[in-house]
Amino acid sequence: MKDSTKKIIEALFLEYDDLKDGNLGRDIISAYHIISKCYAAKGKTLICGNGGSASDCEHIVGEFMKGFKLRRPLASPIPGLPGLQAPLRSISLASQTSIITAVANDIGADYIFAQQVLGYADKGDVLIALSTSGKAANVQNAVLAASALECGTIAITGKNGGKLADICDLAIKLPADETYKVQELTLPVYHALCAAVENEFFGE
Prior knowledge:
This protein is an alpha/beta fold and 204 residues long. It has one domain: Glucose-6-phosphate isomerase like protein, domain 1 (Rossmann fold, 3-Layer(aba) Sandwich), CATH 3.40.50. It is 51% helix and 11% strand. The chain is built from 8 helices and 5 strands, in the order ααβαβααβαβαβα. A 5-stranded parallel β-sheet has the order 2-1-3-4-5, sandwiched between helices. Strand 4, helix 7 and strand 5 form a beta-alpha-beta unit. Helix 2 packs across helix 8 and helix 5 packs parallel to helix 6. The chain is globular.
């Protein structure tokens, strides 16, 4: 990890003192390492969640797929397209309207993310599963599918973590119980992770 990357994570802990305590701080750093290892191996992240967490899925993908805090020049520029930036490949499973509605109608809503994991995931990819309660069945099923395909699995959830925390490789259990409070802490955590990963690959 670059010194400049460390500073990004340290800044998160300075602003949100509760996040650095005990296992939580170590888990956030571990999540960074899991995601960075995936991207170093040319893998991708898949993100899933419901409701407000679905919006966070879109937000995370937006930070990974183009420059977030840094410029990302292409190693091999494409002629005529000077504005393109180097992506960190990421897919929001919450945005695929046609497959979500087809699976919900034909198979069941509990499979809307697992079916996509089956279609999109490759060994070594990472699934980031968002659930404030850790009880969302469709998010849990996505984790089961990802694990079966030998993908890494990271949960971002609330203090209890529910079953989701038990079945993921790593669970970031934020120090809050109420949905909106978990969501308020989720944003700075994934912003820090996105910025840290970006800095590792594109920073000086």
